[in-house]
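Q: Given only this backbone (195 positions), what sequence would you predict?
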């Protein structure tokens, strides 16, 4: 089975997706239409806004449904707070549950390089990366390199093939997950939202 993971970007306080999030979702819809053997879509992202309790992964799901995508093929993970979390929770809550042979990961063009390195380090299957075309490539280049260096430093001692090691590294070394910036995560991720 083939599947798509859509990495979320931004939304407003009521859950309306920004142009870039919509562009990513539309790119996934286009891929789905041309590849009838894609059976599942994962939308991913937590309730990151202080002024909203809505996870962005659910907003992306609602957008897909509004565009005619059948709700029962869409799963949502609300654990992820960044790209490395996208990869880890996609593996634990999606790939380890469903028999996925090929994965399409949708993000923005400037984010493809870092996403590719992180996902391929953690997920041992055939992955194709799709980048929504933006005008932000040059603006984000330095930030992407800094984030990639941070990933390599944070996970330098982790066993990238072990779910337990991945979660424990997030819980102890990553400021988005260890309580430094946001609330510390549990050892057991929140299960997928399936409908």
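A: Predicted residues:
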């Amino acid at each position: 089975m083939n599947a798509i993971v859509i990495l979320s970007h931004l939304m407003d306080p009521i859950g309306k997706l920004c142009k870039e999030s919509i562009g990513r979702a539309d790119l996934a819809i286009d891929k789905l239409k041309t590849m009838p053997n894609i059976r599942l879509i994962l939308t991913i992202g937590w309730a990151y806004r202080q002024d909203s309790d809505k996870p962005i992964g659910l907003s992306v799901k609602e957008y897909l449904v509004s565009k005619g995508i059948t709700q029962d093929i869409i799963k949502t993970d609300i654990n992820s707070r960044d790209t490395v979390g996208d990869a880890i929770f996609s593996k634990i809550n999606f790939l380890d549950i469903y028999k996925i042979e090929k994965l399409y990961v949708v993000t923005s063009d400037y984010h493809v390089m870092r996403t590719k390195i992180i996902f391929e380090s953690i997920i041992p299957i055939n992955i194709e990366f799709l980048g929504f075309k933006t005008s932000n490539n040059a603006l984000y280049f330095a930030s992407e390199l800094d984030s990639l260096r941070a990933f390599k430093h944070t996970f330098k001692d982790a066993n990238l093939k072990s779910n337990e090691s991945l979660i424990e590294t997030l819980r102890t070394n990553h400021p988005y997950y260890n309580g430094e910036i946001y609330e510390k995560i549990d050892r057991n991720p929140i299960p997928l939202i399936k409908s």
